[in-house]
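User: Structure tokens for both sequences below?

Assistant:
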Amino acid sequence: MILLSLSGVSYGTYVGVVDYLAKANKVVWRTEKVAQGTIKAMVNSTGTVKPKLQVAIGCFVSGPVIELKAEFNQEVKKGDLLARIDPKLYIANVSRDDASLKNREADVDRVRAQLQQAINDEKRAVALREEDPTFIAQAEMDKYKFARLSLDAQLKSARTAVAQAQATLDNSLANLGYTEIRATLDGMIIDRKIDPGQTVAASFQTPELFKIAPDMKKEMYVHASVDEADIGLIKGAQREQYPVSFTVDAYPDELFEGRVFEVRLSSTTVQNVVTYPVIVSAPNPELKLLPGMTASLSFQVAYRGDVTKIPNAALRFYPDAKHVRPEDIPILEGHIEKTSERNDDEAQQNDKSMSAAERTLLRKERDRRHVWVEDGDKLRAVSVITGLSDSQYTEMVEGDLQPGMVLVTGIQVSKVGAKR
């Protein structure tokens, strides 16, 4: 009886210890549910905010700036006076050329009068010779004729000199007009590069005095650089008119939205990385977007509505073989082989030697994935074909998952009464 009692107590203790150890070492799975909803694929990039158009206002003449009418951030209209260059020299040039023109015009009048006199003399000589050929010799008649022709040529030359003097005067008047720097279009002054009293020298190149940006309250451009691998997606987004969201450091809590306006063909290569400029158009009614701001952009390149969504953590999870049903262990072995090949230089070289068709087929095969669900004390693999992805979920194209199903995303070993 004593031995039986001791045996019963020992067996009960053994069972209790085994049960305690089993509970203490039981694997607790981290899980997430399959969802139903929409997925938006995004391409991220950075860019710089710039005006839709920047017009540089320069100066054609030289001289000191005696008057400055425009200030930074001032809105101006086309034709508004922005600055004035000292016009003294140019006024003097206009007066000189005007006097020269009048002198040339007077010379025309003088030659015209002499020509008229020569014409009259020739007519009188012709009339006398008709009465009696002996009155005037032929040599005298030639003098009258060629004197008239000479004065006629002088008159043409004088008229040409008048035209030249007029052109010189027009040039001086234009230079005088250039001493007034005026806005060439409506807009806002975003840069001013002169100060009152500064001397402008335009001898070799046209100096830049102002920069005017029109329609800044209506529209601004964000110039982004996008990797060549994503340009196809960006063009598709432009075709579908998907929105582009972005933020700027000045307003970190505010989300701005625009559209892809243009994908430019002028590529840039830096350290073997090829990028293309993408222009995003965004409204700016409150003038919060200023030239030079750095923008962090997210291009929406695809959209799927009302699809089954698999958590990305479930797609990344691969369990240990001891936690998996025996029939699913080959899946893990294949995953280990692929992982080792992916890290092997020789396998990477083989990938490079593949044909384009083989690489395309390989990419399609990579869309076939496995997720894991609880099946008693073990895990069971479920094969799925994935599609579009965002930061949290991936679209299920084919598979036996339903919204609400629980997928394993990781493990955590729990102690009695606490989790680790």
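Moving on to the next sequence.
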Amino acid sequence: MELILDCLLDALLDGAKLLPFLLAAFLLLEGLEHHSRAWIEKLFSDKRHLGPLWGSLMGLVPQCGFSVMGANMYAGGVISLGTLMAIFLSTSDEAVLVMLGSGTAVGTILPLLLTKLVIGLFWGFLIDLLVRRTPHPHHHEPHDLCENCGCDKYPGILRPALYHTVRLFLFILVFNFAINLLISLLGEEKLSSLLLGGSAFQPLLTAAIGLIPNCAASILITELYISGGITFGSAVAGLAAGAGVGLAVLFRMHGCLKKNIQILLLLYLLAAVSGFVIDLFV
């Protein structure tokens, strides 16, 4: 019982340090999402051949809003498959916020972001080059960025920001507690072996975890990476596969189930291969 209380207290203290930072970050991001949508859709429509570039850059913003927007625009025929994959692969979800708030050095975060940017650019342009298919419009009305995350019922910017802050804090609390408890009970070596530590197959596992359409997956992967439980390549694989709720929106808005499954499998394959290649050379 004492061990559980100690792990819970450590998780609470670590999470409490993040709260002011998370609230400030979400206030900024909510303002950006509320005022940028029309401009972004026009940018992708006017400069469609540069779609993977814009998608990769916007995917780096630490929120799943752009992956939701990407899924909606793909379903509506606004962007290509390569652009959609660039957005999904580069999407950072809340991972960057967790790392910044935990005091992780910028020197650790920047390589992760730049790697995901390069992965999104490379695969996005390659897919568009190979497919050579102009997206055809479907008759779907555009939806708000936060429609599928639960904060769309709150008006304005402050209440959605508070909603995201509390939600993310609870996720972090749960995962910090679980990781602290596992390390205390099993030891770091045993935990690492369960995560295929030292195995070239670890990116396959983390990429599969990353596909879970929830920010909880990216938080788990980030916490494991910070604690040294997974390699850099495995972290990249998991976070590249993690498109937040973007995948869930794609399955809801895009009518072809077979195509959606193909996109999911392609995302997993590209993320896992990228992580595997990185671990070979890093």
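User: Anything stand out in the second?

Assistant: The chain has one domain: 2-281.
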